[in-house]
Design brief:
Helicase, Ruva Protein, domain 3; globular; DNA polymerase, domain 1; alpha+beta; 195 residues; five-stranded mixed barrel
Length: 195
């Protein structure tokens, strides 16, 4: 099994990276919308080899905890590698951990735009499986209860516009919490380009 790749990024398109390692080009499916890669740079990816009857696909992630969550998502019935990758394109591990620890599927649905049924399955099936992985990170997160509906809607809209979940959350929570969602979104956009 291939668990790690380090090589030169040759190409990126959609959710695929082509990584050159000692003369071999590996096609790696990745959540590239959550990371900035530069063609020609050396990248390191933590990988999972998915073998099916009609395909062999390699999935890779910059952070080890992304791979951990990818493999946890695969333990959920009806979630295969492609679905798990899409989930990690929409939600980072900290957001998943928060929703699972708080048993709050609605939070995951609203902030990341993951379908209600899928969000519910994630929260239900991964309950109790992530404590040792994420307890330290959760103390730094703002619980859903502290956000107004307008703030949640603004964060969701900013994620749709390409902002990372953490970045959108930081921007929105540093503004007046009484503002409506439209004003919050416009104020963030006026501050300039995303991180």
């Amino acid at each position: 099994m291939i668990r790690f790749l380090e090589g030169t990024l040759q190409e990126q398109r959609d959710l695929d990276l082509i990584v050159l390692v000692y003369g071999i080009g590996y096609l790696v499916r990745s959540n590239i919308n959550r990371h900035i890669y530069v063609i020609g740079e050396t990248i390191k990816l933590h990988t999972h080899l998915a073998v099916r009857e009609n395909a062999i696909d390699l999935y890779g992630f910059s952070e080890p905890n992304e791979l951990t969550y990818f493999e946890l998502l695969l333990t959920i019935p009806k979630i295969g590698p492609k679905s798990a990758l899409q989930i990690l394109c929409q939600a980072d591990p900290d957001l998943l951990a928060t929703a699972i620890m708080l048993q709050d599927a609605d939070h995951l649905h609203k902030v990341a735009g993951i379908g209600k049924k899928t969000a519910s399955n994630i929260v239900t099936h991964l309950a109790g499986k992530i404590d040792p992985l994420t307890t330290a990170n959760l103390t730094n997160l703002v619980p859903q209860d502290n956000l107004s509906n307008a703030q949640v809607d603004a964060i969701d809209a900013l994620i749709t516009l390409g902002y990372d979940q953490k970045e959108a959350r930081v921007y929105v929570t540093n503004m007046d919490p009484t503002l409506d969602a439209k004003t919050l979104i416009q104020s963030v956009l006026k501050q300039g380009p995303k991180f």
